[in-house]
Design goal:
This protein has two domains: about 5-80 and about 200-265 and about 385-445, FAD/NAD(P)-binding domain (3-Layer(bba) Sandwich); about 130-190 and about 270-380, D-Amino Acid Oxidase, Chain A, domain 2 (2-Layer Sandwich). Helix 2 packs parallel to helix 7 (about 200-210) and helix 4 crosses helix 7. The longest helix has 15 residues, at about 350-365. It contains twelve helices and 20 strands. It has helices spanning about 25-30, 55-65, 105-115, 120-125, 145-155, 170-175, 200-210, 255, 280-285, 335-345, 350-365, 420-430; strands at about 45-50, 70-75, 100, 130-135, 135-140, 160-165, 185-190, 195, 215, 220-225, 230-235, 240-250, 265-280, 290-295, 305-310, 310-315, 320-325, 370-385, 390, 405-410. The protein is α+β, with helices and mostly antiparallel strands and about 450 residues long. The structure holds flavin-adenine dinucleotide. Flavin-adenine dinucleotide binds near residues 50, 51, 93, 412 and 415. This is FAD dependent oxidoreductase domain-containing protein. Keywords: FAD, Flavoprotein, Oxidoreductase. Pfam families: DAO (PF01266).
């Protein structure tokens, strides 16, 4: 097998952030030989990305802009059989809608979203795949909730087009499809805010990566073993790949794939159940101007937040609104791969479905005419500090010498921001140093679980 092409000719035009990809660290990426005995049948790559989800597909695109066919991406396709009989890893993006908005009380999340959303249109045009519906997004909270004003202010600094509604009557007049509670206030964000189709966003990123020459293998990774100056990656189909570096973007499965002590990455995985409210064509037309919504319900005993997308077509032909929530108390289903699989195969939680139905049909949209109501399980992975981990996870090795990197822990908010998360991760891997001059690496550092585990923080979608 020929060694990977030297990256001296690599360019990373789409990925620049005041960085020069031609520096000596990037050429070390593929010129360093693996210094240990390795399987003779193994393929070779400069960089392998594990996971073809939202973050992984973005990272692959940016890495492929630098390294072309020397980038290999490995991950299983969406299951084509029923989830009960599927034996591979699941994903948090098998859906038709994820909210996109800049407004967020956390300036880091707002920046990640603003940068990603600003690139949606160019990605759609370049790939020919539509994934973005800028229908606007409304964030509703009781007036006294400081996080509303904080979100407004943070988003304003990022240039978001937004309007603040502080009076219930004005809010109600402006959005008659919703029923607001007395005392509710809201931010309505326009511009690029709305929702994305996560399946199509992944498809667009992968199409661009393939155009750049990246190789994509639809298999599951079973083991990552650091060896000398590189890593050996094995898959469920018996493939072995030798790479100088590996970037793990396997969502809630990431920590189980990491070698050595990196397995103790501090991640908590919460079970989530979403409600699909199927509507007929007339109802879909009535709601065609409906923005996405996120609602703070401090008095609800079960859910802290609910959010939803307007009706969209699902692969089985149904047109449905997707509604989800953040339970005050959620089950942790991320203690093992078996736990995760069991949750996805369970079909979701009936009690959570009933609570979502009650909030949607009795409080938020009492006039909604539905044809059917069904549920789907999903998971959200929280990190110790409430932002994704984008870091080296290779024992004592620092960024410049590390072989194993991670970009994971979406905290329920990473779909809309996956392009920037993937870009930062790709640049970090290419250059062996933190790539952004205006985002502090400490916001994304990997944290390991210890006794008396750090408390996770919770962001809204
Ligand atoms: C119900 C729900 C609603 C959400 N709503 C929003 C929202 O409105 N807005 C928003 O911004 N975010 C939202 N999110 C969060 C968002 O979907 C996640 O943050 C995002 O999917 C995380 O991306 P990821 O790439 O880390 O993980 P994923 O998208 O889950 O991708 C991980 C990939 O890794 C692969 N993988 C796993 N194991 C292996 C292995 N062994 N080998 C190879 N590949 C492997 C999987 O197949 C998968 O494709 C929501 C999440 C949920 C569950």
């Amino acid at each position: 097998m020929a060694p990977p092409p030297p990256p001296a000719t690599a360019t990373m035009a789409a990925a620049t952030d005041h960085d020069d990809p031609h520096d000596e660290r990037s050429s070390a990426l593929s010129s360093t030989r693996l210094l240990v005995a390795t399987p003779s049948h193994a393929q070779r790559s400069s960089v392998v990305v594990v996971g073809l989800g939202l973050i992984g597909s973005a990272a692959i695109r940016y890495l492929s802009a630098a390294f072309g066919s020397s980038v290999l991406a490995i991950g299983p396709p969406e299951p084509s059989v029923s989830w009960e009989t599927y034996s591979g890893p699941f994903s948090s993006h098998y859906d038709q809608g994820r909210l996109a908005r800049i407004a967020d009380p956390d300036p880091v999340w707002a920046a990640l979203a603003a940068r990603s959303m600003a690139r949606y249109r160019a990605l759609e045009q370049a790939s020919g795949i539509r994934f973005h519906e800028p229908v606007g997004s409304i964030r509703v909270s009781p007036l006294h909730d400081n996080s509303l004003y904080r979100s407004f202010e943070v988003a304003r600094r990022h240039g978001a087009e937004q309007e603040l509604f502080e009076f219930h009557d004005m809010l109600q007049d402006r959005f008659p499809c919703f029923q607001f509670q007395t005392g509710d206030a809201a931010i309505m964000e326009r511009g690029e805010a709305g929702f994305i189709n996560p399946r199509n966003l992944v498809a667009a990123q992968l199409a661009m990566a393939e155009k750049n020459g990246a190789r994509i293998v639809r298999e599951s990774v079973t083991e990552i073993v650091p060896m000398g100056s590189g890593v050996c990656i094995s898959t469920d189909k018996g493939r072995s790949v030798l790479a100088r570096k590996v970037l793990v973007c396997a969502g809630s499965y990431s920590k189980f794939l990491l070698p050595g002590d990196a397995k103790h990455l501090d991640m908590t995985t919460h079970a989530r159940t979403v409600l699909l409210a199927e509507v007929d064509a007339r109802e879909a037309v009535r709601l065609r101007d409906m923005p996405t919504f996120i609602w703070h319900l401090p008095k609800n005993p079960y859910l802290n937040w609910v959010y939803g997308c307007p009706p969209v077509e699902y692969p089985d032909g149904r047109v449905a609104m997707k509604v989800g929530g953040t339970a005050w108390k959620a089950a942790d289903v991320g203690n093992s791969v078996e736990d995760l699989s069991a949750w996805f195969k369970s079909g979701g939680d009936e009690v959570e479905q009933k609570v979502l139905e009650e909030v949607l049909l009795q409080q938020l949209m009492p006039g909604l005419r539905t044809l059917s109501l069904s549920r789907k399980p999903c998971v959200v992975s929280f990190t110790a500090h409430g932002r994704p981990y984008i870091d080296a996870v290779d024992g004592d090795r620092c960024l410049s010498t590390a072989r194993v990197f991670v970009a994971t822990g979406g905290c329920g908010a990473a779909a809309k921001s996956s392009d920037e998360i993937g870009r930062l991760a790709a640049l970090m891997v290419v250059h062996g140093r933190w790539p952004s001059s205006d985002m502090d690496s400490s916001a994304f550092r990997a944290v390991y679980a210890r006794k008396g585990k750090t408390q996770s923080s919770f962001s809204s979608p």
